[in-house]
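F-box domain-containing protein, Salix brachista. Tokens?
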Amino acid sequence: MDHRRKRVTKNEITDLPVCLLEEILSRLPMRSPALGQCRLVCKTWLHLISETYFSKFQFESHPRMLVRTLPETYRSREIISARIAEGVNGRTFQVERSKKLVPERELPTANFELVNSCHGLLCISEGKYRNVIHVCNPVFREHITIKVNRPLPFYLNSFGLGLSITNDKYEYKVLRTFCLKTNRSAPGYPRAEIYTIGTKRWRRIGNPHSCIEKLDFNTYVHGYIHWIPDQKLLQFICSFNFGKEQFGQLPLPPTYDGNDVRVKLGVLKDCLCVSVPEKVGSVDKFGIWVMKKYGVKQSWIQQYVIENLYPDVGRLKFYEPLIFLSTGEILVSFNGEFLACYNTKMKKLVKKSTITQTKGGIHAIAYNPSLVSLNVVARGEKVRALPEPKVTLC
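Tokens:
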């Protein structure tokens, strides 16, 4: 009789294949304590959760955005984080308020303006003259504060955050554009500086064709940010490449004559798109054009037409495309006042969503959270972390 004991194989959850671990971990909520605890299990899990591609894998299934309310009587002190759940069985999309980003909890200041986001990091400007920049990761309540050089006299201080990837080297950069004026009546001269996180200094770069007034919902494509120049007669789209640190121009769609300033930029399937007003007889419409081959004028195609618009509100109205859903619906911002859903099959606006109760407007930007700590990309910059909120037990 064989009295030898059989070896018992002990299986650990840490022995699971990486693809299966990704699937399990990606189902945990962004702010779940369990996700933070999983980072402490072992180095493999820590590296997996901290990788940029895991963050994308976790959050790409539901488009997300940040919405800042713009009340008429007081300054907004919070940002609403929302995700867009696509409709099923013929139902339209749902805007789900996931959480609020509150100053002194997830945000370093209450006096801020949304700038843009890039690969999970949020850029906000602070102060009357926007002379302080914060690059934040709200997931970990972390931020880096960057002070701005102030050559005087100047006006229209504006910014954009981007990522430069060269030879597998990842660098986050902040672009600053501003206009110099010799006196109040003189025209402004566009100027620009760049700040690479980790260098702790601003550098002068080439002059932009036009300063950034405000970035639209999402204009980051192929390492470039894009904006509409402040001109009475629009002739081109402005761009900036964060890797080459160069400004550029892109042509507008062929049917646009430059006379109507209600032009909005966006991104559709990794392609730059633009919403431009079109008039057929006495009927107003908005065409959504997509640049299929970046930088090539002949590659513009008209993908959608927004028609059957809301009744005339007695002032200029615009429709800014925000998110394109696989159901054929387009989430649009109407006059920066509320969100609406345009059904491309029915060719009409089918739903309003205010997200928050306010008599003022809203400012929305695209945002996908990141589980990569700012300490990973800070390269020596001082990273400040806001304290965790106290939990009161009843």
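The radius of gyration is 23 Å.
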